[in-house]
Amino acid sequence: MHKLIALLLACAAFVSAQTPAPKAAPSNNGPKFKGLKPSTPAGFTLKTLLVEAHPEHNVELYVYVPDKDGVWPCILDIHGGGWKSRQVENDKPMMERLAQRGFVTALVSYRLSTEAKYPAALHDCKAAIRCLKSHAKELKLDPNRIGVMGGSAGGHLTGLVSMTTGKKEFDGDGPFKDQNTDIRSAIVLAGPADILTMNKDKTGEGSMLFFGVSAQENPTLYAQASAITHVRSGVPPTIFIEGEKDTVKIGRAEMMEKLKALGIETSLHTLKDAPHPFWMSDPWCAETVDIADEFFKRTLK
Q1: The pTM is what?
Q2: Which DSSP symbol is given to 35?
């Protein structure tokens, strides 16, 4: 009997190790974190598009397309996971709800830090935007009305995509070169805006895996990968949503000041009692969707 119990415990530990759950800080007051499950809503078809095949990973788009006729604005989600975990499924519930608000919504499965170093992930996100535009008719989206959002590591990439809009040197050599990577607006969910400052006095395991070098060894690379570095006149409206109990906020306040000084729309929404990653659990997913719905309907009109 003791051997059987030990075997069952070992099996449970192995399964748990194969399916890591996103970390969420416990909330002593208010609602607890409980991950949501994806389910394609009625009236939509979930389509999969190959963006680009790589030996290490096929970059794909998962797109919620309305079954009815029409043309809609589009929102692209860039998932989090410390750049090293693929969390597309975790973000699907949020994008399913936004699709029901009157958008074509998409999620990109980019190359992780265990598969390719920076700027591979950024180039994949840019290629995904071009792919959406190239398939605009099939996907029933308006290629001139695309917004981007993402949380944590996906928030970092979202901010970088937004602030490098129009900078072709960040587009990479991916496919669909007849299309541009311009977006109209962005929402950063609990993502760092200043990767250099975040790693200035330490050597973070996640950052080392993502860049292949430390910030001390190559500060120029870390600065280039920081959204705050590229704030300039003409960048898209970019707002921030954070959890009250979240910590991934480095550079956000300073980046907002830069945007405000240029007259570019920006704002901060802090969700009460919300941990990291709040957008994967209610009531915070619902609150995030409400904020995103209003912002994108206004900026993508």
Answers
A1: 0.90
A2: B
